[in-house]
Amino acid sequence: xxxxxxxxxxxxxxxxxxxxxxxxxxxxxxxxxxxxxxxxxxxxxxxxxxxxxxxxxxxxxxxxxxxxxxxxxxxxxxxxxxxxxxxxxxxxxxxxxxxxxxxxxxxxxxxxxxxxxxxxxxxxxxxxxxxxxxxxxxxxxxxxxxxxxxxxxxxxxxxxxxxxxxxxxxxxxxxxxxxxxxxxxxxxxxxxxxxxxxxxxxxxxxxxxxxxxxxxxxxxxxxxxxxxxxxxxxxxxxxxxxxxxxxxxxxxxxxxxxxxxxxxxxxxxxxxxxxxxxxxxxxxxxxxxxxxxxxxxxxxxxxxxxxxxxxxxxxxxxxxxxxxxxxxxxxxxxxxxxxxxxxxxxxxxxxxxxxxxxxxxxxxxxxxxxxxxxxxxxxxxxxxxxxxxx
Length: 390
What we know:
Blueprint: E1 2-6, E2 13-19, H1 29-39, H2 48-51, E3 56-60, E4 62-63, E5 66-67, E6 72-77, H3 85-88, H4 95-101, H5 112-119, H6 125-131, H7 136-152, E7 156-164, E8 167-168, H8 179-186, H9 199-211, E9 218-225, H10 241-250, E10 255-260, E11 278-281, E12 285-288, E13 296-297, E14 300-301, E15 306-312, E16 323-325, E17 332-334, H11 345-367, H12 373-388
Helix pairs in contact: 1-7, 5-6, 7-11, 10-11
């Protein structure tokens, strides 16, 4: 299974084409739209979320509410496009007009300068339009389709914010809770936090940061419940599922780190306090006494919940601009201010949830015959019985 996305931040639409989905998967626009709405929420979001009310249109690959097995095409139209038609139009313009419109001032922390160097763009808008986090809209839409597939297989997934600007949740507040229980808390929380005791403190810090013209980052966690053991592979580096998940998290705009289970804390513990002892009983088959490794050994799932975290840097677009250099004049200047958020960590948790969902769903389709959903469901059921008695 694979997908491609296309579109610019202020272009007419974002598009995704998904190839390899099984036939007979229930799928409607409403299933995707509820996930797009979650991405636009969270305390700290900027004015753009008030302008763009993202909804998807499924334009191929689905008939009467079920996938056909052919490519599925998703379209999310940009409501703000009407204000950008002259700037982002497809048709050629006069050279003098093109030069007048050029953006030659790269913003620190963005792809502007490096992208301009790579592709030879003197107008840096050619870079920022595609490198914008706006593209994650359609990645969430794709992930929503993957989540629907996982739901049909009894696999559940949730994301939540674990830290904003140094304010951390207490893991004990949600330890032992199921994905469904965590989701109920998170979906009623202003910053998508599973520990409501720190929510107000996080909100106050976000408001203070915005007032000071600055931005803050944080960490998010994704939990996947119900994955069978042995998904992924140890035989090649590029088949390890935890490596694919790490790459997926790192591909999200502004993410700079990833960890599983205890993560970097493992560097400060002896092996006896890290590795997960193996248990077996008639009812559950193989389980682990702990889940310090976050559901992975040797690049494969252990059957325990997948626990992966990512760290997001503060958004680089500031109302307290940083210094940069004009690529035409080589003169120093203070970076321009674009419409932005003061904190997008809650929204980023939703993006993380959906890129993880995609990789997990893809790994399952790699392992099992999956031309049609009923066959995939049966194959997974048989595999679970096999691993239980192994």
